[in-house]
Amino acid sequence: MNLSVSSEQGDMSRNDWTRAEIAELFDLPFDELMWEAQGIHRRHHAHGEVQLCTLLSIKTGGCAEDCGYCSQSAHAETGLKATKLMDVRAVLQAAAEAKDGGSQRFCMGAAWRNPKDRDMPAIVEMIEGVRQMGMETCMTLGMLTKEQAQTLAVAGLDYYNHNVDTSPENYENIISTRTFQDRLDTLEEVRSAGINVCSGGIVGLGETRSDRVGFIHALATLPRHPESVPVNALVPVKGTVLGDMLADTPLAQIDEIEFVRTVAVARITMPLSMVRLSAGRESMSEATQALCFMAGANSIFTGDKLLTTGNRGDSADAALFAKLGLRPMVSEEPMRQSAEMQAAE
After folding, report:
1. Are 140 and 160 in contact (CB under 8 A)?
2. Torsion region of 160: left, alpha or beta (phi above 0 gives left; psi -120 to 50 gives alpha)
């Protein structure tokens, strides 16, 4: 691959990436891939700044979907007790604590296939309350109808998370209760309603590199790239289909260099997006995380818990930031800044 051409194309936020081109990026010598990703990152993002986000499970367990990786699925046998939707006041208290801890975005996740209309008033209250604190808001509630997406938009929701998880070809091996197209349909409703999109994937599902190419291709060829792209490392949970299937096998250990490659390719193909290190960070070495930041990751979840799985915790993150010379983000997110400039014109 001609790296100078690749850099120019990356700067243009292309939406016409081919799978062959993305596969070529994955195949680059590691140092060349990192050089390319870091160069693109510095051209569009404030280097050394990392966005801090907090994720709260506002409704845990009992989900009708059969996602093979998820402990919150009703099909899993993890012993997780299903709960009702949290009280609005409790959610806002958690958001206030997150803001005091330095978080800039508060993400709320409910284990639903799709929200019921009766739950929307409480969801709206949560969004409005968090926004009044001066924080960005994000929700992940499952699939949405057009009307529900519009309701969230009117409430002022900044971001909606709906991950594609894996490649279109591998999707049915992971989930059978919905299709890959269902995922894309919800992303389209979110975008049409004027809400920013947060969508990424999971590494370590037992997938091939071709599947990693496929999930990045699906996102990088959307009409508009997601503003946030979470890259998750599977946390195998006993009692889930994948947790049991991968237990005690080599596939249960994610190749950390391959994970870094995935982050770097996401950065190159979606240069303006925030690329977030999400689930699985608690098991990553500091060196691996440092490589991910060098590859263009610039967003993390803070705290000691992500929905139902562990996270590194604020003190560990603060120590790592100090060691690497990183600081919480204060700059404007490039895609939002670009959208604001276009609207002003």
Report:
1. yes
2. beta
Active site residues: 63, 67, 70, 107, 138, 198, 276
As a whole number of Å, the CA-based R_g of the chain is: 19
Mention every residue, 6+ apart, whose C-beta is less than 8 A from residue 79: 239
Compute the distance between CA of residue 167 and CA of residue 326 in angstroms, rounded to an integer.
32
Contacts of 12 (CB under 8 A, 6+ apart): none
Neighbours of 12 (CB within 10 A): 10
Q: Report the distance separating Cα 187 and Cα 223, nearest Å.
A: 11
Q: What are phi and psi of 30, to 5 degrees?
A: -55, -45
pLDDT digits (tens, 9 = 90+) for 240-266: 767 677 766 665 567 899 999 999 999
Per-residue model confidence as pLDDT tens digits over 200-228? 998 988 888 999 999 999 999 999 999 99
C-alpha span between 186 and 209 (Å, rounded): 26
Buried b (16+ CB within 10 A) or exposed e, 292-303: bbbbbbbbbbbb
Q: Are 230 and 163 in contact (CB under 8 A)?
A: yes
